[in-house]
């Protein structure tokens, strides 16, 4: 991997240009390079030092318009992260595989969003899951099963539970549930990257101080063999197509000096996240595609999905041995017993996992004892009216601001309410008092972004084919979560990475 300037990148034509260096972009770039292609990765952010707070690396001018409690606000969060390595620098490392229902939910669940389907199943993703789990050295509960969910064989054993995690596990077991260690891309032992997890931060929102958390650049992109160049602090303005069905270049803005350049390639891979990739296509208008590249049927940006979520928090009125507020791993234990059930609309429930807080205000609560918190997650059903649009107002780069026009589905809110009740029971059994919900503000954006460029076989109902290629363009692929027709219940990063690996191997 070679860091170069945008000026240097503009002097050659690459076999492939990957837009975004996060979970999917780095995987795709590494695969293409090892197949012998010359690859250019364009990243809007830059390198992040160990132990950095993600909030210090946001762009205050880049927030989007979003709905919140029925009102429009400018607090929308349209990134996973602006950084070399993307959200894998600041995520919690939770690395679940999807189950078949996450890939192909029933028609009753999809409702008006039902269509010809993605037709990608667990068997299709199996070898790609195995590849990324090996690269990241996922630690998890090998071969354990909860209902229909079966964990694979992992390359490292589960990490020990945190003190809050152990209390939550005991509470869950008293309800005859099956709590298990959360599978994570975090090393608990010394390896060539560092000394292993020292639990110095709660993971979420922080780059790992000890490099135990497996960000995708250090684990996948940097070790890749082949011709990989990376430009940072460079924003892609639009795709440039000089003829129908093919893109020849990207126009970029060098944010270090404010100049615009043209970078040329033979193939283009969108890996900027479901919101940013859709916005890029909408900005990329041509004479024959005045509404944006790939948008012949008006589907680019539609079916935006974000996990519906809520925290449930309580306090054990004493300090558990080994408990240090705001220092433990974000998640060490999960409860998958409620992924399905008759209590949920359409029979599809969601996920509960330990979610140690990281905001400074939580430290005051923790002073009263041991703070317990879980996150309840339900994958929201796709709705065509939930979409990414472009505003008439402009940002500091002169580009249209992003509009995230999103409302949760009432049935999904009912699913979340049922899951929250189950979480209340777990915390109460764990000995917590003052158990209550804490808002996650997921409507404003999150790291769980899906839809907008949904994959399928029919161009009238999908934007890309099952391998992520735009129906109307021969050399443009989406490798991020934008192609997912359904958000799925578990954290999506591992599946996004596995799918990017699948697509990159198939690119001709």
From TrEMBL:
GO terms for molecular function: flavin adenine dinucleotide binding; oxidoreductase activity, acting on CH-OH group of donors. Belongs to the GMC oxidoreductase family. Keywords: FAD, Flavoprotein, Oxidoreductase. Residues 382-500 form the Glucose-methanol-choline oxidoreductase C-terminal domain. This is Paromamine 6'-oxidase / 6'''-hydroxyneomycin C oxidase / 2'-deamino-2'-hydroxyparomamine 6'-oxidase. The keyword DNA damage does not apply. The lineage of its organism: Bacteria, Bacillati, Actinomycetota, Actinomycetes, Pseudonocardiales. It comes from Streptoalloteichus hindustanus. Pfam families: GMC_oxred_C, GMC_oxred_N, NAD_binding_8. InterPro entries: FAD/NAD-bd_sf (IPR036188), GMC_OxRdtase_N (IPR000172), GMC_OxRtase_C (IPR007867), P2Ox-like (IPR051473). Residues 196-295 form the Glucose-methanol-choline oxidoreductase N-terminal domain. Coiled coil: none annotated. Its cofactor is FAD.
